[in-house]
Amino acid sequence: MALNPTDLYDIRSLLSEEERMVQDSVARFTDEKVLPIIGECFDKGRFPGELIPEIAALGLLGSSLPEDYGCAGLNGVSYGLICQELERGDSGIRSFVSVQSSLCMYPIYAYGSEDQRREWLPSMAKGEVIGCFGLTEPHGGSDPANMKTHAKRDGGDWVINGAKMWITNGNLAKIAIVWAQTEDGIQGFIVPTDTPGFTAQEIHRKMSLRASVTSGLFFDNVRIPDANRLPNVRGLKGPLGCLTQARYGITWGPIGAAQACLMEAVNYSKDRILFNRPVAATQAVQIKLADMARRITLAQLLSLQLGRLKDAGTLQPTQVSLAKWNNVRMALDIAREARDILGGSGITTEYCPIRHALNLESVITYEGTETVHQLVVGRELTGINAF
């Protein structure tokens, strides 16, 4: 029996029936709704917002949160498979779901009050309220402790001033989860985007994540009530806990991008005839394709075990760092190699490798650069902080 080129170790056989059903439903959505339009969306720099209702109807927003709040209540492996299949379509689609789920809905669930959960989570699961996550600032993202945005208490309110940069969904959002310095340390706030003094400015001229909305957020005496403060966390533990959730999904997402690039390269190399034989008949190309399959297989096993650790409640942030570093680097290298195999055709968005390669330049940078994750692992091994 021939092996599946994108699943040489039959990882699918290790999944539960529910996990396979989730993967299949998201794969169909990607094949039928995302792939037919995503090249044009990337070309035009347009996020396909028309897909949001179906994404919500499939239960992909906040999928791991409890059903009590209108969410699907799926396990961590299922969430990973969602990210994998969405990013097989495009990193921008996965980023939209990742931000909504892990960076906006998760902190409301984990750090918010019960009133906040009841007010926001059901409408966010339905896609009626889109969120964005305000942590990174214009002066740099790898040192969140050096945060300049601040919130000051004024009676029963908080007044926020500052700016955030590179914010996914910023101009789509109805609420922003904003992290700011206070007299009691860093705290999180739910900021409706129609609050006076709040401005979102979309960032244009991007060559990466073009099918995603990226924005700068600006706060000029933005006044919100104390009821909008996330009461159950203080310090960097709050935003870093959110990032661990999102980075977990990112370990899975690039596997999908790499699988798409591998299959594009395999199919093209078998169809492309040079010197009276298919390009796939050359040793050089077969070695490249085999190496892609090897690296994808290793990444699949890494993320699946990470998901099992997450579902067992034993996952550690360093383990997420290792997988994020390995899997995004894997996918970026494969996208570049696939682009090379396609020759001149590889530079057009008629084929997927150049689009995935450009997107992955962002994925390898955001939510912890490759260097940051390397140093996290190094610190774990040595006990010495080299930051």
UniProtKB/TrEMBL annotation:
One of its GO terms (molecular function) is flavin adenine dinucleotide binding. It is an enzyme of class 1 (oxidoreductase). Residues 132-222 form the Acyl-CoA oxidase/dehydrogenase middle domain. Residues 16-128 form the Acyl-CoA dehydrogenase/oxidase N-terminal domain. Its cofactor is FAD. One of its GO terms (biological process) is fatty acid beta-oxidation using acyl-CoA dehydrogenase. Its EC number is 1.3.8.6. Keywords: FAD, Flavoprotein, Oxidoreductase, Transit peptide. Pfam families: Acyl-CoA_dh_1, Acyl-CoA_dh_M, Acyl-CoA_dh_N. It comes from the Bacteria. The keyword Metal-binding does not apply. InterPro entries: Acyl-CoA_DH_CS, Acyl-CoA_Oxase/DH_mid-dom, Acyl-CoA_Oxase/DH_mid-dom_sf, AcylCo_DH-like_C, AcylCo_DH/oxidase_C, AcylCoA_DH/ox_N, AcylCoA_DH/ox_N_sf, AcylCoA_DH/oxidase_NM_dom_sf. PROSITE patterns: ACYL_COA_DH_2 (PS00073). Pathway: Amino-acid metabolism; lysine degradation; Amino-acid metabolism; tryptophan metabolism. Residues 235-381 form the Acyl-CoA dehydrogenase/oxidase C-terminal domain. It catalyses: glutaryl-CoA + oxidized [electron-transfer flavoprotein] + 2 H(+) = (2E)-butenoyl-CoA + reduced [electron-transfer flavoprotein] + CO2. Belongs to the acyl-CoA dehydrogenase family. This is glutaryl-CoA dehydrogenase (ETF). It comes from Pseudomarimonas arenosa.
